[in-house]
Amino acid sequence: MLNFFTKNKVALPFSFADVHTHILPCVDDGVSSVKEALELLSFLKERGVERLFFTPHVMADYPRNNASYLNERFRSFMELYMEHTPDRYPEIRLAAEYMLDEEFYFHLDKGLLTYDGIHALVEMSCLQRPMGLEEMLYKIQLYNYVPVLAHPERYLFLSQADYIHLKELGCRFQLNLFSLQGLYGVSVKENAERLLGNGLYDFIGSDIHSANCTSLYENSFLKRKSGLLVKDLTEKNEVLFREKQSSIE
Question: Which domains does the chain have, with CATH numbers?
Answer without folding.
Answer: 9-242 (3.20.20.140)
